[in-house]
Automatic annotation (TrEMBL):
Presence of the UniProt keyword Transmembrane in the record: yes
Protein name: NnrU family protein
Keywords, sorted A to Z: Membrane, Transmembrane, Transmembrane helix
NnrU domain sequence ranges: 4-182
Organism whose genome encodes this protein: Psychromarinibacter halotolerans
Subcellular location(s) per record: Membrane
Superkingdom: Bacteria
Matches recorded under InterPro entries: NnrU_dom
Lineage: Bacteria, Pseudomonadati, Pseudomonadota, Alphaproteobacteria, Rhodobacterales
Membrane topology: Multi-pass membrane protein
Transmembrane residue ranges: 38-57, 69-88, 100-116, 122-140, 161-181
Coiled coil regions, renumbered to chain: none
Amino acid sequence: MILLLVGIFLWWAAHLFKRLAPARRAAMDNQMGSGAKGVFALVLLVSVVLMVLGFRWSEWVPVYDPPSWGRHLNNLLMLIAVGLLGVGHSKSRLRAKMRHPMLLGVLTWSFAHLLVNGDLSSVLLFGLLGVWAVVEIVVINRAEPLRTSWQGGSIAGDVRLGLITLVVFAVIAAIHTWLGYPPFPM
């Protein structure tokens, strides 16, 4: 459980550092150049590894019983979450209409997983990453209240986003099945 919590803490710290300590981050950029981004990328990689290992190695402690219908809603929400994660880098028309699609994708992912996982490790992992997404949105909106909308997008971009979303969702479902967590009822 400690590894899981350390991984979550590092995730939060690495992502919020630029917003909460902009002068310190600017100093790092001046001293290290592009190496500063490498440091944060390494910290994020370590955080993900720690979260995965901490989650896998944690003792299963029940907190609540997930609803039986949660699995179906989880799959729908996960399809939406994957799409939202892709919107931020797409040439879809939806990109111009949304301010924080990737963070909304993380929040949707988090909620979807809490629908089907009622153990303590899941509540910590998915719950705290969902809270992180909300905190990031608030912090970004306070720092940058005026939004510059992305210009562009096309029907082709919408179709491409939809197809990529379906493929990525299928790959995620296959990986979950391979790991022993089949997302679809057998």
